[in-house]
Amino acid sequence: MIEERPLPTTDEPVDAAFWRANLEGRLLVQTCAACGLARHPPRAMCPDCQSMAVEWRAASGRGRLWSWAVPAPPLLPAFAALTPYVTAVVELDDYPGLRLVGPMLVGKAGDMAGFDASALRIGQAVQVGFSRIAEDVALPGWRLADPQ
Amino acid sequence: MLKDRSAIVGVGCTAFAKNLAESELELACGAIKAALDDAGIAPREVDAVASFTQEETPEFEIARNLGFGELHAFSQVAHGGGAICGAVGQAAVAVAAGVARTAVVWRARKRGDPSKRQWAAVRARVSDHWKWSRPHGLLRPVDEVAVLARRYMHEYGLTREQLASVALTQRAYANANPGALMRGRPLDLESYMAGRMISDPLCIFDNCLESDGAAAIVLTSTERARDLCRPPVLIHAFSQGMSRQHQLMSDYHGADPLRSSSWATAANLWRQSDIGPDGLDVAQIYDAFSPMVLFCLEAYGVCARGEAGAFAAAGELGPGGRLPTNTSGGSLSEVYLHGANLLVEAVRQLRGEAATQIEGARACLVATCDSTPNGALILRR
After folding, report:
1. Nearest chain B alpha carbon to A38
2. Cβ proximity of B139 and A75 under 8 Å
């Protein structure tokens, strides 16, 4: 069992652009350069038109909570140390139907440890944030959006 | 046509326990030999095998330990809890098509040891599709299903009390099953509600057991089955299913994440079946996590969308209910064997020899993991 938190590989052609943008605090969505279909997670080929040409488009990072889980032990040691934490699935406002998984974030540093799930509700507005957890990894997560 | 042309003629199991002394290979050999003895078929007659890609006893080891004949068909099916009906179905296809005569399907597993949990083997860098969920904190299958369960609760008003009836009903079946791990351990609603959360909204009693054991079945042509000693259980219909754009197992990216691969399996299963959802007498539905049972009841058309929680809470999964389900105690309370025990229980019900026998059971649905690409069978007497 690994001691550290598992990280994504960030150098694969299919999704390197996504992870690179995260380091700069930007959320990108892979779209088909031929037919415009937006898709996440990224794919090598467009499932609608079979083109392999892609464009990366900016997302606002605003979204709505689709659902979430509150994992509790037994967990990997690195995650057990972060409990209580919440991992959410969020539907993006500007790409309807596109959903991203990410932890709920607390504090300015983008920590996921100690998030209180009791006040969350489905449909709640969130805004993307990034946690720099390795030289090549800034994982996207979610902060509750300021009330309008 | 596949319909009714092959039959399960033998079943075998080892003891089930938290910690068995035997190796997985020894457990597999024991279960397969028991299934062949049950069928009255000599090992040398076996010429086909099917199992799981996750099975750690290789088919050549099984064949050379058991003393099988020359093999003419062998296949493995992926996706863990989604695999057992696919393995049986592929063996049935080989037999029905005349490629092979007699097949063995098995699953052996020592999961009682916490280090054998698959999620515990996650690597420091994740390069496959799991990179979109595991580093973010959805580490285990239970976390992935918890997300779906919460959304389902929101959409359809399922309560934890309703969900509890899946675990409680199955525990009662296990209490009556001398082979079940939970045979002497009753469970009531109060204890369920007090159970610790594993991934909120799912508590420990919504999770399958961690256990050791093996199970096997023997399958041959229906023609040959008529000459054997045991009542044949016919493979009436079979399908595997993978929904469009399925992403294992954090399948949140399709048009409707609550419309799982089970819906694809079900449509193609019923297309081939003379028996419909209303014609079922009993069901065995994969239950690594209790919400999967409710999801499948809807996907297979037993309940309308959103109504499975009320169905379970009304006692319809119990012995006197409209569709007695997971009648051995299932993965939650009998043993966790990636659903192989559910298949064995289906055969026992249709032979009339189950621990909690459903009177006059003639047709059984066996459905596999709702959250992965999966498969299902309609078995009948």
Report:
1. B253
2. yes
Name the active-site residue from B152, B192, B300, B336.
Answer: B336
Q: What is the pLDDT of residue A1?
A: 86
For domain B6-114+209-380, say whether CATH 3.40.47.10 is its number. yes
Please tell me the distance from the alpha carbon of residue A50 to that of residue B321, in angstroms, as a whole number.
49
Mean of all residue pLDDT scores within chain A: 95
CA distance A104 to chain B (A): 10
> What pTM was estimated for this model as a whole?
0.97
- Pick from A9, A75, A82: which is nearest to B126 by CB? A9
Q: How far is CA A54 from the centre of its chain?
A: 20
Reported as a single tens digit per residue, the pLDDT across B203-240 is: 999 999 999 999 999 999 999 999 998 999 999 999 99
Q: What's the CA gap between B369 and B285, in Å, rounded?
A: 8
Torsion angle of C-alpha atoms A120, A123, A128, A133, degrees rounded to 10: 50
Determine whether A144 is exposed, middle or buried from the number of CB atoms within 10 Å of its CB (0-12, 13-18, 19+).
middle
**Inter-chain residue contact A139 with B136, CB threshold 8 Å:** yes
What residues does each domain of chain B span? 6-114+209-380
Give the pairing of strands B363-367 and B282-285.
parallel
Q: Packing angle between helix B340-351 and helix B84-96, nearest 10 degrees?
A: 60
Q: Crossing angle of helices B24-39/B59-66, nearest 10°?
A: 60
Chain A residue with CA closest to B126: the answer is A8
- Respond yes or no on whether the N-terminal peptide bond of residue A84 is cis (omega within 30° of 0): yes
Smallest Cα–Cα separation from A26: which of A54, A58, A4, A51? A58
Q: Which has the closest alpha carbon to B324: B335, B312, B316, B314?
A: B316
Return the DSSP state at A146: P
How many other CB atoms are there within 10 angstroms of residue B229's CB atom?
10
